[in-house]
Each structure stands twice: as C-alpha cells, then as structure tokens.
Amino acid sequence: MGCMLAPMPTSADKTQWRDLYHEVVLTGLCTGCTACIVACPFHVLGYEDNVPMQLQEDGPDACSHGDRGCDICTRACPRFREWEPEIDRLLFGEVRRPEEVIGRSRDIVLARATDPEVLAHGQDGGVVSALLIWGLERGEIDGACTSKLSDERPWDAEPAVVTDREGVLATAGSRYTYSPNPLALVKAAELGLSKVALVGMSCQASVTGSLEARRVNKWRRKIAWTFGLLCSKTFTYDGLMVEIAQRRLGLSLDELVRVNVKGKVLFYTKDGRELSYPLKEAHAFTRPGCLRCPDFAAEHADISFGGLGQGEGWTLTIVRTERGQDIWDRAVADGVVEARPGSEDPKAIELMFRLAARQRARWPTGELPEPHRRPALLPDPA
C-alpha cells in the first residue's frame, strides 16, 4: 500500500534538529530509539542518558546544517508530529480507529519454533530466532539488528548485528533494560549488509515506517523485515539489576541465566532457582523514555511477538502487513514454526487488549503544539 502524502510544505514549514529537540526530547516523547542519530548524514548527533544530544557545543538551537535546510533527523523520528497517521496510511491505507487498540492485524496466533535448540534458547516460543535463522539461511536477509548482553556491564543490553545461526542464538532472549537496536543499522552498513531484519520494541518497530513515509531512503532500503516486540516498558539498569536484583534480592549478576516478566519480574539462576519481585513495585524503576509511549503492541511491525500466553513455550504472534503475511505463510509451510489459533488462549488475547488500551492513555493530549504538516521531503544529501 503506497503512502498518501500531504502537499509539499513551503520553506517556512522546514523542520530541523531544533524542532525535534524541543518538541520530542524536552517534552518526554523521545523513546531513545536513535533513528535520528542513524539518519543524520553529518554525524552531529550522539546518545547520552538514553536520548539524542547534539555533539556541538553551541546547543540544540544552533545546528548549522539545520539552518541550511537539513531536516532528516525530524523525518526519521517515529515520534515527531503526525508520525502515527503517516505510518498507518503507509502500511494499512488508513489511520487506525480508536477502538483498534492493538492496531491492524491480519492474524493472531500462538506459535513456537520447531527446532529444539532454537526453542531452548528463545524467550518464550523462540519464534523470532527461528524466523531470523530461516531468513539468513534462505538469503532473504543478510543480517539482523537486535540486542546482546553488554560487554561493559553484566546483564545490560546493547545493539548488535548478527549474520548467522550462532549469532542469532547467542542474542536470543529478553533483557528488559533498553537497547537502541536501530543504532545497529550503522554497523550493518559498515559490514556492507543491504537487507537486514530490524528487531526491536514497539517504538523501534515504527522506525521503518517513519523512514519510508518521509523518504529517508538511504536507510529504509536496508531494512527487509521489521519484527516488533510487545512492550509496556523497560527498566533502568540501576533499577532492575542494581537495586532489585542485587540489593533487594541479594543476587550476584554472575548467577543469572534469564530474566522474564510474567505478572511479576522473574530472575532465573544457574543453580535452578527462580526469584520473583512484584511488578507493581518494579514500576518505580521504569525508564523515563517509556512513560509516554502509546504503543504496546508494536503496531507498525511486519509481525509482532510477545510472551503473553498462559502456557509456557508459546509466543503470541500478530501478523500485520502484507510482507509479514508472506513471511509467516512461507515459514509455516517450511516447518520452521508451528502455530495454532490465538483464540485457544483467550486470556492472552484479553490481556494484550487490556495492556494496549492502558498504554494508549499515556500519549499526551492538549499540552503539545497543535499538529503541524509533515516535514519537507527533501532528497537525502548523503
């Protein structure tokens, strides 16, 4: 489905880093996805405290490239101005209706990997890992932008590029601290990769749509698949790993083998113990960039995945786009994953709708500037 574009703005409507900083970063709408940093052709943006910042000393109101007409950072941002209706029209031909609290979908199923090794490494049903390995082995993708455990801090997450089965399995699972996975697109480009899968949380799953809807073509054409992870929040590292795991539960991070959230925060250790912490109490350590995100269900992914199923070992899977349906149908036909109707777990479906509706209430109304027209569509200078 093609993008329905608004009339070309006049020169007075040009946007730049100054607008992005004041309207998104300072207002708390920024999720820290790093799309603006990736897309900046002049490399003047960096990443600090989970938000973009200008590397120049003159501050956000003095971007010389923006003053000369560069607007690419604002076009890449999946939270800038009318981001959601623009991406909705691109992917689905129309804007989502208020009652469509999980966004548009073609099918909702429960799925799991058929390969025992992949299933064992996966967070729930190992479906994302199975699809990535299948795509790499078939040559449909040449890499995946995902996250791995940090080399700097135990059980923190950082962006990573994987290109083979071993890499996928090594990065499988969830960390629940934030990793700006789109930043891995830069590494993928350095490696010469041209058709990667972008795997990320809800905010990051909208990056592909914003790049395409606003014609940031240099980066959009590198992304072949977009997989989204259902996400209500991530936690700060100091909150989850230092305060909860170490101080309150008395765990050594060297003991951990897995972390999960199933109505409570669960920590699994090498010696087989399961320690839990109340999720309500963990809310105090929510990462600030998640507090205003309205998208629980990764509505702009080709396929969305989450561990909401009541039974262990199955992934709740939402097929959304035409591309996603094609990927899914062929993967099922090849026996890479097995699936059963989502209706077999009505509690999981009900929970997904409830969490999505609750998260929709986070998006601010009436306190931000009135919606503006879309940023000018200029050719990429890079």
Name its key features.
three-stranded antiparallel β-sheet, disordered N terminus, eight-stranded mixed β-sheet, 32% helix, alpha+beta
| Proportion in helices | 25-40%
Estimated radius of gyration: 20 Å
Give the CA-CA distance, first to last residue: 27 Å
Uncertain regions: pLDDT < 50 for 5+ in a row? 1-12, 366-382
- SSE pattern, N- to C-terminal: HHEEHHHEHHEEHHEHHHEHEEEHEEHEH
The biggest beta sheet reads: 8 strands, mixed
Number of helices: 16
Shape assignment: globular
What proportion of the residues form beta strands (DSSP E)?
15-25%
What structural class results from the helix and strand content?
A: alpha+beta
Strand adjacency order, main sheet: 5-4-6-7-11-12-3-13
Could you tell me the number of beta strands?
13
Let me know the average pLDDT.
Answer: 89
